[in-house]
Amino acid sequence: MRKLTDLLRGYVRLRVTGGSPQWCLNRLTAERIPFWGTEFVDPFTLEVNVYSRDAAAAKNAAQRAMCDAEAVASHGVRSRYHGLLRRPVLLAFTALAIVCALLVPNRIWFLRVEGNVTVPTEKILRAVREAGVTVGVYGPSVKPQMIRYRVLNDIPELLWLTVTQNGASAVVTVREKEPKPLGAPRDAMRNMVAIRGGLITDISVLEGSAAVEKGKTVLPGELLISGVIDLGNKFRVCCADGEVFARTWREIGAVTPKTYLRKAPTGRVRHTVFLQIGKNRMKISFGSGFSGATCDKMTETKTLTLPGGLTLPVSLIVETYREFTPSVTETTAEDAAALLRETVERGVISEMIAGKILSASMTDGESDGVYTLLEKLECEEMIARPVRAVRFKGDETND
User: Domains in the chain, please, with CATH?
Assistant: First the structure.
């Protein structure tokens, strides 16, 4: 311990020469100057150690004892590393390395997800960050059980989750819930009913018994295929399944304004660059942006990734602004009619389970600054829909 203290405080080795060097030791003792390591070289010379701060006082004491004193060696941290004071950059990086060596191993800097198939990785990472596992968080403070409860509550598709730390990297391991099998249980009873009224054109029964015939007109909600099969002396309950096509009719109206705002690009483009470290974002480009109402913005993010696939919390964000001038444009009656007809027919097709449009007739017009369209469509589509059957009084039906 004494040697460590001497190195930290620093000391010098003095060589005292004179007719009686012992008098120098008496003067040092009288002036209360600490010394140690006394060694006689010859009858007129000795060497002694004193602290660096007392070196000048020790030389003066030697002169008063009719002796000469000179420093022959210097020891300690300051004397050995005093040249570093003239290299501030090296000192700064040394201090940074020491801080990183103390902080990095105990903190989480990388997050990785494994085990997910259908749930997006970004969705899991967002939920984990909201639960407290962020970049730079102190590793031992992360409680996997608490993180599991919060994330499973936010993402019902997950069955299990845990967070394990390996150095500066945290691995989020998840297990997803098994998808429920399609269809109804074997002992369930199910009927097929009409979701739209129409004229039956084709019936294909895969399970159950047909309740309607080809050429019959049905109303919405009417039974098409029954889940009860009559076997003569008994009945069998099943899940009705099949396809029933019918000819249906619709009458749909649509409107669109005569004028609209159109973007005319001016050709001016500006880029704004940001550097994001963790959650802190700083702008590193110059210049002001365009008005948000007269430009389109596109954002591109480039994340720094190590060769092993670990993503650093450092991103370069480039925002591209393209200026435009809004101008009022008037739609012609022909273009409006084509647009409305396409919109109506696309919506009808999207509503069908299966089918097609057989014919369509439309009536268009113009009033109060808008174009109007009334279209009548004749379609052939699959109208059967499975519903839970009611066995007893009081049972509920799940559509």
Answer: 2-81 (3.30.70.260), 105-176 (3.10.20.310), 259-330 (no CATH)
